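User: Could you check the structure of this?
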Amino acid sequence: MKYVVFYESGPDVLTLAPQHFPAHQARLRDFHARGLLLMVGTFGDPVKEGSMAIFSTREGAEEFVGGDPFVLNGVVSSWTLREWNEVLAP
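Assistant: Sure, the predicted C-alpha cells are below.
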C-alpha cells in the first residue's frame, strides 16, 4: 500500500510559491532521505491541476502535510490523502 497526497493550488500560488519553496524543498529532501517520500511532482499545469506526492506510509504523508510550508502559508488551498494499491510493487 502506498499513500498519495493530491494538492490543489491556492489562488495566490504564483506569488506565494517562490517565497516558500526553499523551506518546502528542504522538507521534500528530508522526507525522501528518510524513505517516506517516494515520488513528487506537479501536473502539466500546476496552477490549474496542482501536484501530487507518493509516500510509503500514511503517517509519513500526514506528518509531511502537517508541517509543509506550502500548506501552512496558503500556497495549497486544499489537499487529499488517498490509499493506493500499486500493482507493480515488488
